[in-house]
Specification:
Keywords: Acyltransferase, Cell shape, Cell wall biogenesis/degradation, Cytoplasm, Magnesium, Metal-binding, Multifunctional enzyme, Nucleotidyltransferase, Peptidoglycan synthesis, Repeat, Transferase. The chain is an alpha/beta fold and 456 residues long. The protein has eight helices and 43 strands. Strand 2 and strand 3 form a beta hairpin. The longest helix is centred in the middle third of the chain and has 21 residues.
Length: 456
């Protein structure tokens, strides 16, 4: 294939979405739908320009992060008018120009490559991706000549009753020779029912100048689905998620019930891991090999290592879990937490910016916020790390091999040295030295020789 210029039409508001957010920014499997289009094009190695309009600043900001240039269509006066906004790029380009919509996230790179290749191999002025639909209502109809080439494309509102019976439709995806497109765009007018400048009118001009327009039929009608409303959005989401799940399963991941398992496109999972139903793996979540994620879990940007066992109903956000960790059920691991190798985070435990050391345990009913816990430490049930004084957050540091008794409250800022212990129900307000046991409210040093306690 020759050098390629791709133009994405992304200026429409999408009024049928009934949304304050412009259509192409709606999420599909964890990414804005226009991002799916861009990623598919990028597999073809193309210069990409997007025509933006409604909420153009928001769309342009997203596109800039993807390395895509944008041009503004101030008034939405039709698809031909939209392409005219990129006229300077077309003029400078030599070769194929691919035109497609920003609301068609299902188009595969293979399909686009085939469209481009067939135009170039046949030396056609343009190629149009078409499809056959049993119910073609709403689409422009393909009118072929006696040689099977495209003679013209008739929009639904301008079609005669006979033309409306035609089953072959225009997908809205085109590949033009750049010079043919440049010339055709100068001939557009708005003499039609909608008083808009149709890109499809370029087909008539090319035929008048003895150019050839070939149809390239898309056998998978799902690929050309455009998102016009929330019903379309849900259908596209379902198809993409099925593709994602199938890819993971083919790569050695067990997904117990793919129909009710939701995995974003940016997620990676190692082989021999198992994902149970009703689980949502979002963002840039990474899961290693031989790990298990139970039912009703939600992981967002989580880094999960190998041989991790996550029991049902857990939430893990922007946190790192090391090898051999056991989590849950009903654990909530908030952003900025790190759980080291072999540790255990049990039922109804909440972590926030916490670092739990190797082989340490927070087994039950505890809150650990802004805390660093060393190796081999056990935190008893009902323990609270009180990190907030009503105005500021404070940190707690717990050493290695510490034993925290059940229902202990640790009032930050505070530290407990290696081998330290707290009695059940203690309220610790002062630092505890190494190998010292404290008990009581407030906690005091426990003196075994006297059978009681004294201020620590």
């Amino acid at each position: 294939m020759s050098d390629l210029l791709s133009i994405i039409l992304a200026a429409g508001e999408g009024t049928r979405m009934k949304s304050d957010l412009t259509k192409v920014l709606h999420q599909v499997a964890g990414k804005a739908m226009v991002e799916h289009v861009i990623d598919n094009i990028n597999e073809i190695n193309s210069q990409v320009v997007a025509v933006v309009g409604h909420q153009g600043d928001k769309v342009s900001k997203l596109l800039e992060g993807k390395g895509v240039k944008s041009v503004l269509q101030k008034e939405q006066l039709g698809t031909g008018h939209a392409v005219l906004q990129a006229a300077s790029y077309i003029k400078e380009h030599q070769g194929s120009v691919l035109i497609l919509y920003g609301d068609t996230p299902l188009l595969s790179p293979q399909r686009l490559k085939r469209l481009i290749r067939q135009r170039e191999e046949q030396g056609a002025a343009a190629a149009v991706l078409t499809a056959y639909l049993e119910e073609p209502s709403g689409y422009g109809r393909i009118i072929r000549d006696n040689n099977g080439y495209i003679e013209r494309i008739v929009e639904e509102k301008d079609a005669s009753s006979t033309e409306k019976e035609i089953k072959e439709i225009n997908s809205g995806v085109y590949c033009f020779d750049s010079k043919c497109l440049e010339a055709a765009l100068t001939r557009l007018d708005n003499n039609n029912a909608q008083q808009e400048y149709y890109l499809t009118d370029t087909i008539s001009y090319i035929n008048e100048t003895d150019g050839v327009i070939i149809p390239v039929v898309c056998e998978d009608n799902n690929e050309i689905i455009g998102v016009n409303d929330r019903v379309n959005l849900s259908l596209v989401e379902k198809i993409i998620r099925k593709r994602i799940n199938n890819c993971h399963m083919k790569n050695g991941v067990t997904i117990i019930d793919p129909a009710v398992t939701y995995i974003d496109e940016g997620v990676t999972i190692g082989r021999d891991s198992i994902i149970y139903p009703f689980t949502y793996l979002a963002g840039k979540t990474e899961i290693g090999s031989y790990s298990v994620v139970g039912s009703h879990c939600r992981l967002n940007n989580a880094k999960i290592a190998d041989k991790v066992n996550i029991v049902d109903h857990c939430i893990i956000q922007d946190s790192k879990i090391s090898d051999g960790v056991n989590i849950g059920p009903f654990a909530y691991i908030r952003p900025g937490s790190i759980v080291e190798k072999g540790a255990k985070i049990g039922d109804f435990v909440e972590l926030k910016k916490a670092r739990i050391g190797e082989n340490s345990k927070v087994p039950h009913l505890s809150y650990a916020g802004d805390v660093e816990i060393g190796k081999g430490t056990n935190v008893g049930a009902g323990t609270i790390f009180a990190n907030y004084d009503g105005q500021d957050k404070h940190k707690t540091k717990i050493g290695d091999n510490v034993f925290i008794g059940s229902n202990t409250t640790i009032v930050a800022p505070i530290s407990i040295g290696d081998g330290g212990k707290t009695g059940a129900g203690s309220v610790v307000t002062k630092d505890v030295p190494e190998a010292v046991t404290v008990v009581g409210v407030p906690a005091r040093t426990f003196d075994k020789t006297k059978g009681g306690s004294e201020d620590n």
